[in-house]
Amino acid sequence: KIMSKIYLRKIILLGAVVVLALVFAVQTIVSSRSSEKVFKFDGDFDTISIFSEENGVLELKRDGNIWKTGDEEIEENRAERFVSALKQVKTLGIVSKSGDENVFERYGFSDSQKISVNAGGNGKNLVSLEIGKDAAGGQQNYIKLNGSKEIYLASGALKSTFNIKKDEIVKKADEKKSDDSEISSEENVSSGK
């Protein structure tokens, strides 16, 4: 009798181990199918073009470490936000693979609603991004990448990042003066004055 109780306990314990192993395997498989995806775009951006019907075209070019639009310098933190947003785009899932114009309209990809962003480096287009409507309070947007018909739900408030006018990102005159005074004071310190 004692042997049969020990044998029964071993069978129950072995069965529990098998069940736990199966649960673990199923969870691993399900979690690996997550629809969350991060698109990374390598390369050194030296141009960014932003277009919307509301704000027109904004052409940004990098000159050394300074980003400019035309001859005017752009606020450094804004340029860094643009580059950071384009280097890594986090999507939470595919919303539609349709390609139908009505679907595009529903998610904000009509010409009057969308924002188109193209970034390049060394004469090559590295990423094309179309930003549609906001979702979930503006922290998420519907996007299309590199001319694809697939619509993704993306995190990162891309619409608020790129829905800008030139005068919102250009360095103001007082900022330029403070930068110039810092440079001249550094020159005076280094020359011993």
Structure description:
The protein has 193 residues and is α+β, with helices and mostly antiparallel strands. 39% of the residues lie in helices and 33% in strands. It contains 6 helices and 10 strands; from the N terminus they run H-E-E-E-E-E-H-E-H-E-E-E-E-H-H-H. The chain has helices spanning 2-32, 76-87, 101-106, 158-162, 166-169, 173-190; strands spanning 37-40, 47-52, 56-63, 66-69, 72-73, 88-96, 115-121, 124-135, 140-145, 151-155. A 10-stranded antiparallel β-sheet has the order 1-6-10-9-8-7-2-3-4-5. Strand 7 and strand 8 form a beta hairpin. The longest helix has 31 residues, at 2-32. The chain is elongated, with a radius of gyration of 26 Å. The N and C termini lie far apart (100 Å). The relative contact order is 0.14. The model is unreliable at 183-193 (pLDDT under 50).
Question: Count the helices. How many?
Answer: 6
State the helicity in percent bands. Answer: 25-40%
What's the alpha carbon Rg, rounded to whole Å?
A: 26 Å
Give the distance, in angstroms, between the N- and C-terminal Cα atoms: 100 Å
Element pattern in H and E: HEEEEEHEHEEEEHHH
Q: Compute the average pLDDT.
A: 85
Question: How much β-strand is present in the residues?
Answer: 25-35%
Largest sheet: 10 strands, antiparallel
What structural class do you assign from the helix and strand content?
alpha+beta
Query: Strand sequence of the main sheet, in spatial order?
Result: 1-6-10-9-8-7-2-3-4-5
| Low-pLDDT residue intervals, each spanning 5 or more residues | 183-193
Number of strands: 10
Please tell me what the overall shape is.
Answer: elongated
